[in-house]
Structure formats: C-alpha cells, structure tokens
Amino acid sequence: MSAGRMLLAPGRTPWRDVIIGAHPWRTCRSRWFRRTVRKGRTRVGSWGRMPGVDVCVVGAGPVGLTLAIALRRLGLDVRVVDRAPAAKHEARALVVWPRAAEALEALGVAGTLARHGVELGEVTIHAGGRRLGALSTGWHRSAHSRPLNIEQHDIERLLCAELARLGTEVEWDSEVTDVKVHDDRAEFTVGRPGGSAESATAAWIVGCDGTGSVVRDRLGIPFRGRRRTGLQVVQGNAHADWPYGRHPGHGHIFLAPRRSLLVFPLPGGGFRFFCFRDDPDPTLTGPPTLGELRDLVADTARLPRLRLTPTDPPWLNRARFGDRVAARLRLGRGLLAGDAAHAWAPVGGHGMNVGMLGAHNLAWKLAAVHRGEADVRLLDTYDTEQRALAVRYIREMRCNFMELPLPPLGHHVFSATVPLALALRGFQRRLDWQLSDLGRHHRPSALSWQRAPAGLGRGRGPRAGDRMPDALVSTGHPGTGPVRLHTLLRYDTWTLLLLAGGPGGPGGGAVPESVHQSVREAVLERCARGPVPVRVLSVTPADAAEARLLGRPGELRLVRPDGHVGLVAPAGRTADLDAYLTALGPAPAPMSPSVSAE
Length: 598
Fold this sequence. Notes:
Blueprint: H1 31-39, E1 53-58, H2 62-73, E2 78-81, E3 95-96, H3 98-106, H4 110-115, E4 118-119, E5 122-127, E6 130-136, E7 148-149, H5 152-165, E8 175-181, E9 186-191, E10 197-207, H6 214-219, E11 223-227, E12 232-241, E13 250-256, E14 259-265, E15 271-277, H7 290-301, E16 307-319, E17 322-326, E18 330-331, E19 334-336, E20 342-343, H8 351-370, H9 378-397, H10 408-422, H11 425-436, E21 449-450, E22 472-474, E23 483-484, E24 494-499, H12 513-528, E25 534-541, H13 544-550, E26 555-559, E27 565-570, H14 574-584
Parallel strand pairs: 1-2, 1-10, 5-13, 10-19, 21-27, 24-25
Antiparallel strand pairs: 3-7, 4-7, 5-6, 8-9, 9-10, 11-17, 12-15, 12-16, 13-14, 14-15, 17-20, 18-19, 22-23, 22-25, 24-26, 26-27
Helix pairs in contact: 2-5, 2-8, 3-8, 8-9, 12-14
C-alpha cells in the first residue's frame, strides 16, 4: 500500500448524510458532527480504542494551538501541555500572511485575529538616504489579501481563548520529559512543579515544542541541517521620533551594506524593528540595549537624530539561527509540527506561518485516520508535503536579497535594480504572490491526481495540488448573489466542485444543463458510496474573469478539506473520480503521483 492510501472500516458509510443533493449551496452539518463536536464526544475507529485522550499536543505556541483547535473542531479529544509557567508575553513573530489567514478562517479564528491586528498595505524601500519605490500588497483574490501585523503573544492569547471555548484548557507548567510510541498508543511522562510526575497515554502525540523538541529527541528523529554563520538578527519594539511618522498599514525597508532593516507598525503603537546584519562578534549572545538598537537603526536609515523610546512592555532580542528540517515528521503514533519539524532564519517572516499551515494540513488527516476512515499511511502525505514545503522555503530564503545583508558591491547593484523592478506591475504581482503563500502547492504529492490536460496560460484553473482560488460564484439559490467560493468549502469534508452554466472559460463554453445534471447525478451516486465525506457543490462563475480562475467548465475538481485540489478530471469521466475515491478507501488501489493527461 502506497503513501496516499486511506482505509475506512469495512461496512461503514457514516458520512452519507452530509452529501447535498438538490440544494448544493445549503450549509449543513452531519449528525455525527453535531453529536461529537457540540457534546465533546469522539467516535473512534480501529486506531482510537484506548484509554487517555485522542491527541496530546506538546507545546502551546501558535502551531500547537492551531492544531488543537482544528482537532477539537473535528471532534477529537485533545490535551495541550506546555512547560512554560504561563502564557508567554514575548513579541517574537509578527506577521500572518494571507494563506495562513485563510487556514485560520477555515477554523473560525481569522476574524478574531484581524480585529486585534493591523493590515499592511504598502512597504517603502529606502537605500542611501533616498526612496527607491514602494511595494504594495493585496494584488490577489482572497478575503485576507494583505498581511496582518499582530504580535505572537496576542495570537497565542486569542487562540488559547478559542481553545478554551471549545472545551480544552492549556496545562501550563507541565513539561513532557519522556515519550514512547507503541502500535496502539503513545505513552508520555509529564513533570509537575515540585518534582511530581504523571504517566499518561494518548492515541497520538504531536510535538510542537520548538527547535529543542523533547518529543523529537525521544522519538530519535534527526534534526538535519546546519547553523547559519555570518548572520544575526537584532530586533526590538520601540516608539520612534523620526521623519517618517507612524501610518497604520505602512512599513519601511532600509538597505545598507551588510545589513537590512525592516520597520513595521505595531497594533498597540510603536514599531517593530528587525535588523538582519553581519555577525562581527559571535560572542555577543545577550539581548541588545535600546542604545545599540537605536545606533543600528540610525546608521542603516541615515537618521543621525533618531530617538527611540521603549514600548510597554519593552522587548529587545538578539538571535542566530540554523536551517534545519527533521528527517521525518512521523514515527508511528508520534508526529512533529512547527519548529520541532523545521526551522530557519526568519528571513521573509514565514516560519510561524509554515507551521500553522502544517497544522492545518495535519489535523484533518489525523482525524480521518483516528476515526478509522483512512489508512494510517495518509499521515505520510503530511510528512512529504510539509517537509517539501519547508525545504522550498529554505532554498528561496537564500535568494531573498531584499532582507539578507549584502556586501558593498552586491548592495550597490541590487539597490540600482530595485526602482526599475518596483515600477513594473508584473513584478509587484509576482512578489506579492510569493509573499502571500497563495501559490504554494502540493503538486508532487501522492494525493494530487491531474487527470485532465493542465493547459498553459490564463484560464487553465488550478492544477491538482494547488490551492483552490477564492473566486466569486453563484449557487443558484433564489435570492442570493455571488459569494466567495471559500465560504462554501468546509474543513470537515471534501468538496466535489462542478461548474454549472454561465460564462465559459477558455477551451469551451458553458456546460449544457442536461449534461451537467446527468454528471451531477452520477457523481452524487459515487460519492455516497465513498469512504470519506464528499460534498457535491454546483456553482456558476460570476463572470468570465471568475471563470478563468476556476478553469474549464467541462472539468470536475475534488477539493481536500484544507482547500487544496486533490483531483482534476473531465466531468464526464466519472471513472477517474471512482478510482480516486477507491484509492482513498480500503480497496488495494495505489495512490500515484500527479500525472497529466496526454
């Protein structure tokens, strides 16, 4: 059985009641979902019959809390432990990028974070005391098209509150000191204040406990990579008396030889100053003084009269990093996520976001395996997808000349090209696309089947493994107008998307209603027999531009619970859908890598 195979306990079709027939726009919850999530119970399959909780999450940072919330929303019983004595009040990470915000929206918490943050709309680039141009955000379709500035401790506080609302409190001052995994359970030891200890069990244990992960160490998983030399990050929060004022939603980047300074407004007032610089004295390990930060900012931005005053509470930090990825993210019933799985220098500011996206990827797979609906090998696709994502980030980070400190000649050449690049609309769109993470994909995954010609250029629609675009669509329900497609997708089920009548995209016009109805009836019948929950959704693109985002009207797309496309196939060739759903279930059909049709 290959890495993508899923298994449902024989004879069970518990999700038949979530298949939507005549009214595809209707939002419904299955009877199982109401019983388990609202009453706190969990139905378990062959992987979950044991004492203790379903999942123990070790670490209550943003990644661990995101994972715990996702698992609770899927009905699993979760325990969260953290060795810290209480919730942290350190600033640390600052930016939630659009794709991570979409994942949080699927879990019902993005709006709460947005109310406590500041959207970043524009970043001005400076070098040598002059303005080189400005980078604008929000070029691409998403309900969260702009990055959100919000302090990490505020993220953790808000996520803790949401988790408590779902019935799980974080156990602070509780350090996991040992982990052992068996075929049917994970055993772990929790140290308590005063020297006492508790032995406990869970069906699964997930280490979200940082770069020094105890879970990873006890599982014996190597943390491969190396320390990055010649680079340090000096950062802090401060109020600034300077000529640029304070405009919410407006940041600055200052470039200079051997250093790069990023300045972003904080929601509560003041600025976060990040300075990536060379490392002339590696023996300096303590946090910088406010004076050191002030001199560094003044020299880089060429502001000799700059005055900085500390925020309340004050925060200053000096850090050095290594680029590392765990050799594997799963060993039996033990898994890794966040910095326990991968870590690198914060160039680009995506570390927390990649971890949260990983939690979003992992939770639905773990829930399906735990309930006996999927084979345990489904979790191996989390390993391959997330490790590949982390490796790509590390490679791209090494070419981020906007933030990496450059030698004098490199700085001079790069600064000369920035005004020309920022003047190009295509460059702005491309850079925003990369920073937003909206283009991140899982095309090589065993879960990605491309059974229709991928095509070239605009109008081809998302390929297998891509994020499903948040296009404007109509559902056909009387009295409703166009809605964002992502509001119709759900985290507790797969979605089979069919394009009904309306504007046709490139490669063909609208599908005739009679043909569409016959296809719909065929896929409804097949999905009702499937091992996993599949919701059939018929939509009409709002106009021709939206149709180009969604692809050809003669194709169907099976969308995973995390919003990535699993299958792209001709709408009339339901055998491809049958093969995919069979591979998800107990039949011995192997999952294959993404294959383009001839």
